[in-house]
């Protein structure tokens, strides 16, 4: 199937998740597919059969994408080359690395992108991201490797 949504656009990144997809074209993030856990980042749990822009990222420069089973990670870089990691979708296995601010309940999903804050001793400049199923890995510029989600060695935020 030819996706005409990308006609006359320059695609720089793309990823396939279990049931959803994402691409960056002309600097904008597009997502489509199954959206039941919010992994499309558009504020709903609706499925999208065609690529739709995730407006949250319109003023950000996206450097990497990683799509898990039912969650999404987006790495952005600012003009000073500092990075920010955003996550959205299912958090049933801790793959978003977020809890409620009072630590009482696990947040089970996020329908919109949420900035992830690594532990205070972490280098704030992430160079690589990856995810598979319900586990995530990131590497910082000091070559430290962090993991969270269902990995047995995961961080517990």
Notable features of this structure?
Ub_ligase/GEF_domain; 11 strands; Methylamine Dehydrogenase, Chain H; four-stranded antiparallel sheet; Reg_chr_condens
Number of helices: 0
Could you give a short account of the major beta sheet? 4 strands, antiparallel
The average pLDDT value, as a whole number, equals 89
Q: Using the CA coordinates, give the radius of gyration.
A: 15 Å
The domain tally reads 1
- Structural class call reads mainly beta
Regarding CATH, which class?
Answer: Mainly Beta
> Could you state the CATH homologous superfamily?
Regulator of chromosome condensation 1/beta-lactamase-inhibitor protein II
Got a strand count?
A: 11
- Shape, per Cα inertia axes: globular
CATH architecture title: 7 Propeller
H-E order: EEEEEEEEEEE
Strand order of the largest sheet: 1-2-3-4
The separation of the N and C termini measures: 41 Å
CATH fold topology: Methylamine Dehydrogenase, Chain H
Q: Which percent range fits the helix content?
A: under 10%
Any low-confidence stretches, pLDDT <50, length ≥5? Answer: none
Keywords: Repeat
RCC repeats: 27-78
InterPro entries: RCC1/BLIP-II, Reg_chr_condens, Ub_ligase/GEF_domain
């Amino acid at each position: 199937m030819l996706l005409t949504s990308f006609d006359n656009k320059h695609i720089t990144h793309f990823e396939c998740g279990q049931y959803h997809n994402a691409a960056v074209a002309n600097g904008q993030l597009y997502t489509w597919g199954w959206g039941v856990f919010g992994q499309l980042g558009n504020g709903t749990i609706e499925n999208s059969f065609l690529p739709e822009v995730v407006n949250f990222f319109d003023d950000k420069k996206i450097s990497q994408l990683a799509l898990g089973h039912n969650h999404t990670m987006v790495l952005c870089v600012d003009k000073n080359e500092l990075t920010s990691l955003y996550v959205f979708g299912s958090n049933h296995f801790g793959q978003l690395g977020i809890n409620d601010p009072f630590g009482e309940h696990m947040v089970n999903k996020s329908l919109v992108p949420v900035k992830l804050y690594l532990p205070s001793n972490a280098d704030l400049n992430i160079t690589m991201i990856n995810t598979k199923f319900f586990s995530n890995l990131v590497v910082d510029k000091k070559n430290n490797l962090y993991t969270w989600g269902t990995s047995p060695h995961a961080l517990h935020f």
